[in-house]
Structure formats: structure tokens, C-alpha cells
Amino acid sequence: MTFNRMTLAVLAATASFVAATPAFAGTCPAGKTAANALDSAPTAPSNVTDTVIGSVDLAKEIGVANRDLRMRRLVVQPGGIVPLHSHAGRPALIIVVSGAVTEYRSSCSVGIDHAAGDISSESDGISHWWRNNGKTPAVLLSADVKARD
């Protein structure tokens, strides 16, 4: 393979990797960052399934007592709601596998849309809730650190 062909092959491989890398989302649109009390936020789930698909006891792994790292699969039906909750002491990463959802966050005055492939970072005590405003189910994978009950 000549240098030019090798260079093209490396560039093509890099481009396909970059295209396959999920986009970090969850930032408030420019000019919309503001305290949002979420006064009318729903407090009960609706049309959503939440299945724990795996967990790790962090005390055994890294010495963090009474905490689990868990992976969950959430399916939010059209019109479905993941109710208001806080991420104080409970960081999480969410990836939208399919469909789309809108997040309503305590630090943003408008909803934040998340499409398939987007990742949302949830930490720093953020409070929020999610709604599927679309016409197809949204499938999310959530990895979070949770206190043991």
C-alpha cells in the first residue's frame, strides 16, 4: 500500500470512529441557562419501564461503602415520564439508544432535546425530569452510582 492509500485508509477509519462516537448532550442552549425551580414537575412515573440489567457493589471493588454502580434500561413510551429526581451524590451517564426524549433541568429555562446517540451527564446535584414528546418509544441506558436502600 502506498503512503497516500495508507493515509486515506487511516483517515477513513478515523472518520468512521468519530462518526460512531456518541455526542455529549445535556447542555442548555446558549442564553437559556437559568435557575428553574421545576415547580410543576411530575413526581410520579408514567408509561416508563425501568429495569436494572446489572450492578456492582462498589465497597468490594473500590472501598465505597453502601453504593452500587448499576446499569438500567429505561423504555419511555410516547407521552411517558421519568419523574423529577435529583443527582445529588448520584452521578449518572445516560445514552439514548433509540427514539428521543426531552429533559427539563433545574439549570435551564427550556427543555433539552436528546436524540438517539446522545449522552447526558448528570451530576453536581442537578435535578431534572424527562418526557417522551415523540411518537415512538425512547430507549435509554443509564449507568449511575446509587446508594443502597
From TrEMBL:
Location of the Cupin type-2 domain: 74-142
Sorted UniProt keywords: Signal
Gene3D superfamilies according to UniProt: Jelly Rolls
InterPro entries, alphabetized: Cupin_2, RmlC-like_jellyroll, RmlC_Cupin_sf
Claim: Signal is one of the keywords in the record: yes
One Pfam family here: Cupin_2
CDD domains: cupin_RmlC-like (cd02208)
Lineage top rank: taxon: Bacteria
Cleavable signal peptide: 1-25
Protein name: Cupin domain-containing protein
Organism: Sphingopyxis soli
